[in-house]
Amino acid sequence: IIAQKAMDKRMPPASLTKLMTLYVTSSAIANGQARLTDKVRISKSAWHRGGSRMFLKLGSRVPLKDLIEGIIVASGNDACVATAQYIAGNESSFAALMNLNAKKLGMINTHYIDSTGLPKPGHYSSAHDIAILTRAIINQFPQDYHWYKQKWIKYNGIRQPNRNRLLWRDPSVDGLKTGHTRAAGYCLVASAVRNGTRLISVVMGTPSDSARANDSDALLNWGFRFYKTYRLFNANQTIGKTRTWLGQQKYTPLALQLDLFVTIPIGSYSRLKANIELTPNVKAPIKKGQPYGQVLVTLNGKIIDKCPLVAQIDDPEGGLLTRMTDHIALLFRSWFS
């Protein structure tokens, strides 16, 4: 997080709610519980839902893919309700799925009542939580992300534009979602990629459509101008080893499971440090992929990232002689430590 103001304040999220509707839908597709080609019947409650609409026809059967595009581009409340009913049976059950996923993602200041974001008591989120959700959408469902930069949708003879002005203004922006109600003000979640770095901005509660676009544009431009991303270590690159007691091998090589990137102010790279902390007195059996230490990344003496170091190999217990020798060595270490 490189800039924030009141990021954990609970606020009405308006149609930013639909990002979780889309997250749950992408999860269902990824898990084989739904398919993009599935035909969804449009119920009366979906057809009748007020607010922004995709203009679905009552009783028609619409491919799930079309509903997803209608949610993203037209912010269709009718498409949200139809999707929620199809995946979970009814909207209240779908809201329970939304809240379950919010909890799993660590969205501690979020609670959903429905799939659309129309104002209701007890329906709230925060800028921080929405950023967490946005990152999860981008990272977990890259196969679906291309829809978020779509500028137009035409359905039922009606052509509607994406209300995210930055899609038209900045070619580096490729998503994600607008929102507006009287209670929530004008909201926008945007994301852009420049020179291999992706940033996410979340703006809530602005007084106008142009204000949310201008504020988001300013945040993204500021982030790209004054910050730079560096890759410190590659995934599965051995960057340390730990003494393994009672095992067949004397040392266990350790690595990161994911590439380690840091985004820091331009000009501060020389003050960046990475230190390794190892778990003391590691004993066999060692399981590949289990953590036995961590990398601490600091800037100006302040920790900015922590990543676990995991074993790259399995190491079962050694023979009797090895275990006896190591037990004696450990005993001496305990006496003189």
Could you characterize the architecture of this molecule?
With 337 residues, this protein is of the alpha+beta class. It is built from 9 helices and 15 strands. The strands form 5 sheets. A 6-stranded mixed beta sheet has the order 12-14-15-10-9-13. The radius of gyration is 25 Å and the shape is elongated. The model has no long low-confidence stretch (mean pLDDT 95).
Strand residues, percent: 25-35%
Radius of gyration: 25 Å
Percentage of residues in helical conformation = 25-40%
Shape: elongated
* Class computed from helices, strands and strand pairing: alpha+beta
- List unreliable stretches of 5+ residues: none
Q: Name the average pLDDT.
A: 95
Would you list the SSEs in sequence order as H and E?
A: HEHEHHHHEEHEEEHEEEEEEEEH
Largest sheet: 6 strands, mixed
How many helix segments? 9
| Span of the ends, CA to CA | 40 Å
Number of strand elements: 15
Query: Largest sheet, order of strands side by side?
Result: 12-14-15-10-9-13
